[in-house]
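Human:
Class, as today's exercise, you are to examine the entry below, and be ready to discuss the fold:
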Amino acid sequence: MSDQYVKVQVEQMKSFGEDAEKEGVDTEEQVPGSSPSASVSPDHPTGTDASSTSLPCKQTGKSRSKPGREDKRHTSDVASQGSVVSSEKNLNRLGYERTLQVKGTGKILQRKSEPNGNYVTIHTSKNIEEMRREEGFKLAKKRRPVTVDTSKAKTSLEALKISIKQLKWKEFPLGRRTACDIYWHGVSFHDNENIVSGQVNKFPGMIEMLRKINLSRAVRTMQELFPEEYDFYPRSWILPEEYQQFTTQIHMVKEKDATVNPTFIVKPDGGSQGDGIYLIRDPSDLKLMTGSQAKQGVVQEYIQKPLLIDKLKFDIRLYVLIKSLEPLEIYIAKEGLTRFCTELYQEPSQKNLSHVFMHLTNYSLNVHSGNFVHSDSQSTGSKRTLSSVLYRLAAKGVDIKRVWSDIIALVIKTVIAVVPELRVYYQADIPPGKPGPTCFQILGFDILLMKNLKPVLLEVNSNPSMRIEHEQEVAPGVFEYVPSPVDEEVKVGVIRDTLRLMDPGHKKPTVPQQRAGGFEQGEEIPMEEETQEKSQDETGTLPSLCLKQVYPKYSKQFNYLRLVERIAALFIRFLGVKGNMRLGPTAFRTFIRTCKLSGSNFTMASVDILYIDITRRWSGATPDSREAGMGLQAFVEAFFYLAARRFKSLALREQVVSLLELCESQLGPQSGVEERRSLSCSRALPRTVKTQTPCLANPQLSSPAPLRRAASQDYRHQRFKPRSLRANVEN
């Protein structure tokens, strides 16, 4: 057949393309007679061959030829090469190509109208499998490689370069005039102010939100509402603001029991890599001033009974990806790092408080110890993989699934605590309707395991080190960077698979989530054996993803915690001006009036006094604020006060939920949250709520009052009562 040249006569071809489109017809042509039957295969790619075959075809606009009517619909005349069969003039209007698959031959026929409109020539093409293979190659070539701007990557550059090379993407180390798909920043969202599209690996406001003071405040708010769920964070006092409270409580504890002598760790607010951290046992040892300025920071209870391996204290560096805020998506790296101290651990005493290599696990500190061991093995040395430590614990009979489940819960709860403020920052930098990039970010969670295997959150790093080499002294006083196999194994996988998840060519539909605060509490994370995460790799050369989705996968167990996000949604709704982060007095009055919270017992004059009182005190607590007005944390305090005033007989959590439902019902479906709450307060929230904060070691110590007293004359008779928040945890 491939050696024949056949010309086709067509009886009727009136506007075939238009009719077929209008009727949605799947046409099929058949070649009867001596030639093999051929069925139309529009999905196959067109192609030509040196040899050609012509078949006379009578084409109609109807879907398929019925048995017994082929003589009316098709006329076949196989002629010798060069023979001509006339065609109707209306073929002139056709101007399209069709393909025929010849059954039983593995060939593709292609038909194209001749320039004069009188003939149709059908060419046989290559084998079907060959065509499909070639088409696959063409598609692979056609797909534009993902572009990554690495000009601001800083210390993560080497791991990023390796990841881009493994993915066969295109790197722009000096930036690019036209837009890139992904921008990798080394410090903050604002490393490049001129991005209006694509994706950036930093969220606006993340650095500010994860400073020691702001993180402590966010967790403290959650401890008020959910004291038992947030007992993984040590009690903290904010300096210098709460210095007097801290001093008073320590003296009271010592007067009550002279044998109690707790240890505290002091951390500067913006410190990193262990800089400025020290231990104290008495408030008089606090270093509150730097020259004439007060030092901003936190003082936390020190965990005196950590889990030890080889008699050394260690912590876990876990990498967490926040893929998006709306909807909230959280991934945890299946592999992490463990950083070991370099001096054998002893419980703190006045003699060893200054031994940083014994008490502080920071790599940047211990690497300067003479006992630090650089090892190419993942299970030895001063820096090891998390899996090697878990394997060693499992060999001793530790329930690793339980430990991992607790760590996942800690991560999700911490992210839920900081998300409300992040949403405010996000809408300020990228308001709805304004061109701008989408964001994602890798965070570094520093977690300590206590002797009873309970995980404790030490801090969250907005810019965890992704360096895959370390300093090594090659000669006295001469250092150079050499590869670190342990770092490369973990960090390259985290960056590479983060890029794979953010690949714009593999965007998956977002998973619908239940609205915040809409589930019952108390369910445990199922930790059954899970199937391997499917790779999004087309070539099959990359391993399965090392990042495990934990939210919204486990949203059912944690959505009830997202109450403050609902308060933030109300706050954002009344901000008014795009890019603003603080409520003015008029906006606050509008909130009160719209939600119908004022009345004869709570006049608008009282509303103004409340606004002034709370705003003034929070302005003093955040002296670096560049905007005037009521920020989110101050608004949350005001909201708690309004809830306590309106629903006096309920516990705090139920008060907040009741006021939220009242406000959302007044505002209607556009209150900034997607779905209406389906569970009632009494069903979702137990009435027996302990209003105590976590206590990791000394139950006598209570946390500073989360709500401040109103100073105005109108509120003296019902001042904000400081709540003593405690929860006992065994060491």
